[in-house]
Amino acid sequence: MDNKHDILCLLRSVANGETRPEDALLELKEAPFEDLGYAKVDLHRSVRQGAAEVIYGAGKTPEQIAGIAAAMGERGCRNILITRMGKEAADYVASQVPLEYHESPRLGLAFPGERRDLGNIVVATGGTSDMPVAEEAALTAEAMGNHVTRLYDVGVAGLHRLLSNLDVLMQARCVVAVAGMEGALASVIGGLVDCPVIAVPTSVGYGASFGGLSALLSMLNSCASGCSVVNIDNGFGAGYLASRINQMEGLETK
Question: PurE domain: from which residue to which, for each copy (predicted)?
Answer without folding.
Answer: 119-251
